[in-house]
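Example 3.2
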Amino acid sequence: MVALSPRLPSPSRELSMTRYIHAPPERVWSVFKDQLSEWWQPKPLRTVVHSIEWRTGGIFDTTIYGPNGESRVRRGLFLEVAPQRRIVFTDAIFADKPSSLPYTLGVIRFAADSVGTRYRLAAQFWCTPCSRQRSDTKLTDAWRLAAKQFAALAEAKI
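Structure, written as tokens:
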């Protein structure tokens, strides 16, 4: 019998970014889940949400489209959904089937702050080459652009 011990990837395999949003956590959470397709990818990319179950154990099924018709399917499972506080997700499994691709563990945090809400997104990659590949493609720059779009939506209705 083999004992498995879950271990998180090393910090060298993590990419993260933080954004301060001038809106209360309730508002930020509402925009996050209800308007995801409007901001999840930086323009001109767009996200089509096929299905999202905002609960622990729920699935997400989306497709990201580029300006020239290219597409990328993004599917996975929510390991934890704590409204207005934290979301943990992975693309390692979808609909009870393991992914054939290298996978990611994502952690999103929302925290009340003196200016509104601190939003932090982190991705932990399970292999060093995966981490380098994502870093080399300027993933964090794309995250910052998407977070700017997200903040604009959340702050617009204050």
